[in-house]
## 1
Amino acid sequence: MLGITDYGSFCAAVLLFLALPGPGTFTLLTATGKGGFRAGAAATLGVIAGDQVLLWLAVAGVAALLAAYPAVFKAVQYLGAAYLAWIGLKLLLAKDGAAPVIDLQPGRYFRQATLITLLNPKAIVFYMAFFPLFIDPAAHRGAITFGAMAATIAVITLVYCLALCAFANVVAAKVRAHRRIARLLERATGAFLVGFGIKLGTQ
């Protein structure tokens, strides 16, 4: 299909990678827990926007540029690590008993999710390694093939993340009635983000 070999396996691989826990997943869950489904949907669009930028940078060969200038790669990596850790610390240090804030401006969650996605330069390298696995050299059609892959990733991400947000919104409504459980989940999310930031910054 448009130069993509084994399209079904390509879709399955994208879905599998989405299902793996990562900072993007926790960003969606946190946004939904604090701002409801609307905030989760905004964060989903932020993840997709950031992911598409990294995807096309990979196509353009930015990974080769980062490899040629490791200091640039490290700078972006450290910036991403610091941002994740900062968000995690905010969750960890939030005052006990404080009610979740319902933010009626989802743009905040869109920007946050976009930044978290963009500040993971390893995603560029991932795409550089992932795409060749599903490209048919004989039928490859250049930008059309990459465009089809990018659109497929965006659609699968949208469907999966919105379903995740819908589920999280139902659970969050029940959790809000039990503030102690909600606080434990917030701290767990914060600890994960801090840990992921430290891991990213020390690799």
## 2
Amino acid sequence: MGTEKVTTDFSSKNYTDTELSVKGTKVIECMTGNLNFTTPIPALDEVKATIVGYNAALTKAEKGSQDDRIIKNSWRAKLESQLKDLSLYVQLISKGDGVIISSSGLDVNKKPSAIGALAKPENVIIKMGDNKGTVVISCDAIYGAMFYEFEFAEVPTEGTPAWTHKTSTKHKILIDGLISGKQYVFRIAGAGSDSSRVWSDEITSFVI
């Protein structure tokens, strides 16, 4: 059994009106007489009829009224739904075999590529909070970061700092419970699927 997944999203973010018609026509051509798919659901003739109706509505809507565009959108929604149903049928029959899926004229989902170690945080800023013993630490958003790790320690330190660790899904966090008048060192790292961490430059600041 294969591991490929058939694309089921035919929305406007992936296909323009014209591209959807072209895609639907290609799928009909590829699946007609294809021995891999002997009982398509829905039937290919139904999808073909929808494409004909959609193309007519699409042509009329180009220079037509608002009502014409509403009708076109209705046909588009119907075609999107039928192509999604065909995709689910192809997924079931193909059992994830990429070659069989490709023979239908449909596409497979792109597999996410590993990002690896994330970039070093930039523009790290330390600001005093509204209350004593609090600071707000932030950095620029990091591509690929699923969450952010923040660490701080009292200064001076001997050897390795005794870091206190906090995490957040945002690249900005409020840290409280600090000792007013003390000096601390702060750093940030973005965290993703890679277990390695690239820490920012350490920033030292007194806490009010």
## 3
Amino acid sequence: MSEVILETTIEDERWSSAIANIEQVAETVKSAAFSYLKIYEKPEFLYTEKPLKVNVCLSDDETVHRFNKEFRGMDKPTNVLSFANLDFENFSAENKPFEEIELGDIILAYETMEREAKEQEITLYAHFCHLLTHGFLHLSGYDHIETDEAAHMENLEKEILQTLGIANPYEGE
């Protein structure tokens, strides 16, 4: 499998105090997500010889709000935003000249995630793992616009989180 390099930036220090060893947790979630995809989904991009790079930014509502408004036209914060860089239909041709392949960027908002975790009566750790997995799936070409896509993506999330010992985040919906 291609090496997936995770670059984690902590912009809001509350992340570090809320989840112990958060960078290592992110690495563990990354490994679980991409290993699962390689075994069960077999996406072409995971079989390249080139390293793959993902940028994760642990930020706050203000920053995510700004990006959500600028890129999605939604004037509010959200829990996670993903910005995928790959065109999966032309993956081989488009990525030949590059030594490293940028899968994309994920940005998470501390306040929104903390509030949602409290509302759902789950730990911030479990919610972080879920939404980081969600972001990795978006960067891997999965979406939830259509009902069948959403069901498939949710199933992948549940199965990946299960490998991490995290309960089904959709239970009770």
